[in-house]
């Protein structure tokens, strides 16, 4: 083929590759979304975080309430009044005004406060875990949106390359160097590429909508400029027992243990002391009254509640053991997946470079008549697959970092907290 017939297709391919690289480096859409770090700084306004914070505040309020002593009871009693005979009126009545108070012996108040403090500690740890989970969800949605954006760019680039190859095939068909079937196949591939592009654009818009909702943004997301897929994972040194799930399980076990003390103390008599003044109308005199009352533990000794509290403690102890084992296994698996995903990203990038060079050489060979259209389609498909694999590899690396960050008790791509 004369040089005048070969140069335009080469130039078109070069422009397509350059345009693809430019689009990946700087998206063309306006009004990009805030960066992941900026969204992470606003995480305390998300519903899940607000709910966990409110539950923690409620637990702290219950601690303050547990410190309060019970209110005294005031009573006014009248005897020997408005009856018959000498008690027909109020002249022989006896009136008593008394105040009684629960003494809260046996450490009742201390045990109650200890349980409330333990539950407040559990609520605080659960709040921290909720914040970590919310950060992980935000990172996942952000990465999904960025990956969808890149896939839409890839689909557009695939359509551009497919149309360019289809036009080149039609030129060869017109020159009689390729059968008419090649032109029909090229048109069919271009139609399929258009459908794939439209689907990728729809997935991108859906991912942007999810990010807008999860991040509670006032304006809809139309583009992602600050990349999360290209960030390197954070290096951490947290021990497996420091996992948030383990700390929560430890706090729940401590609270369950303290509930046993509360139930044991409740089996002891609840003693009340009273003091009062009695008025004798007939003698026109007054006298003090005082007394102590307590229930007789003949029937109810709170054994059922004690046994239930002990069973709850055994269950909490088993949950703690399971949480420690799961944290150790999950963290080892997360570190392995993260290391594998880092290697996969490097391999995917190398594969993209090789596929781009192979496609470039195939296009040159096709223009020179040394390579068939079938081989060109194979290299183009390999290039598209390699670029898609590179996006998938980066998304897998983000997912591995999210999982490891949860085990470390931190936000993804942030230093250990």
What does this structure look like?
With 417 residues, the protein is an alpha+beta fold. It has one domain: Outer membrane efflux proteins (OEP) (Up-down Bundle). Helix content is 66%, strand content 8%. The chain contains 8 helices and 4 strands; from the N terminus they run αααββαααββαα. The protein has helices at 3-25, 36-41, 47-67, 108-174, 180-214, 244-266, 303-368, 373-408; strands at residues 73-79, 94-102, 272-280, 285-293. A 4-stranded antiparallel beta sheet has the order 1-2-3-4, with no helix packed on it. A hairpin with a 4-residue loop joins β3 (272-280) and β4 (285-293). It is rod-shaped. The two termini are 65 Å apart. Residues 1-30 have low confidence and may be disordered. Residues 1-30 form the signal peptide.
Summarize this, please?
This protein has helices at residues 3-25, 36-41, 47-67, 108-174, 180-214, 244-266, 303-368, 373-408, and strands at residues 73-79, 94-102, 272-280, 285-293.
Keywords, separated by commas or semicolons:
417 residues; alpha+beta; Outer membrane efflux proteins (OEP); 4-stranded antiparallel sheet; 66% helix; 8% strand; rod-shaped; Outer membrane efflux protein; OMP_efflux
Structural class computed from helices and strand pairing? alpha+beta
Helical residue percent band: 55-70%
Q: How many structural domains does the protein architecture include?
A: 1
Could you give the order of the helices and strands?
A: HHHEEHHHEEHH
The side-by-side strand order for the widest beta sheet comes to 1-2-3-4
Ends: how far apart? 65 Å
| Main pleated sheet | 4 strands, antiparallel
- Tell the overall outline: rod-shaped
Question: Which percent band covers the strand fraction?
Answer: 5-15%
The rounded Rg comes to 38 Å
Individual helix count = 8
β-strand number:
4
pLDDT < 50 stretches: 1-30
CATH topology name, in short, is: Outer membrane efflux proteins (OEP)
What number is the mean pLDDT? 83
What's the name of the CATH homologous superfamily? Answer: Outer membrane efflux proteins (OEP)
For the record, the CATH architecture stands as Up-down Bundle
